[in-house]
Amino acid sequence: MAHEHKLEIFRGLVKFKSNTQKIWGVLAFLTLITAVEVVLGIIKPESLTDTYVLGMKSINWIFIILTLVKAYYIAWDFMHLRDEKSSLRRAIVWTPVFLVLYLVFILLVEADYIYEIYKDGFVSWNF
After folding, report:
1. Closest to 59 (Cα-Cα) out of 74, 81, 37
2. Are 37 and 66 in contact (CB under 8 A)?
3. Higher confidence at residue 19 or residue 32?
4. Where does residue 11 fall: left (phi above 0), alpha (psi -120 to 50 degrees), or beta otherwise?
5. What is the C-alpha separation between 15 and 85, in angstroms, rounded?
6. What letter would DSSP give residue 14?
7. The dihedral sign for the CA sequence 26, 28, 31, 36
8. Where are its TM segments located (predicted)?
9. How many CB atoms lie within 10 A of CB 59?
10. Interior/surface letters 12-22, b for 16+ CB within 10 angstroms, e for the rest
């Protein structure tokens, strides 16, 4: 049974008249987030590169969060998750979010361990 897709984004804050307008609106939103990432990567503000949160620079956390926002929104809009039941949406969206956060945690812990071994251990830097 076919049904009309919702022509709105941001939970109804912005409404469009056609699918073409909606695609352009989503493109503009994703382009804006990407532009923020690129500008932050080029400028690298000292306030974000010198501040550490949970063992990682603040700018890296911003990059991870913005990337997760883009991935979530792509799944939400282009995979039409907004039209599905909430349990399916949660299963599809939250599982990768938790797995990415777990991967980031593991990488941070292991990277810090390797750094400490090379810094204070018997093995010296050979590269």
Report:
1. 37
2. yes
3. 32
4. left
5. 22
6. E
7. negative
8. 23-43, 58-79, 91-109
9. 20
10. eeeebeeeeeb
Q: Give 8's DSSP letter.
A: E
User: SS3 for 122?
Assistant: coil
The pLDDT value recorded for residue 59 is: 93
Question: pTM of the entire structure?
Answer: 0.68
Q: 91-109 pLDDT, tens per residue?
A: 887 888 889 889 888 888 8
Contact between 22 and 16 under an 8 Å Cβ cutoff? The reply is yes
Task: State the average pLDDT over residues 68-82.
Answer: 82
High-pLDDT (> 90) share of the chain, %? 23
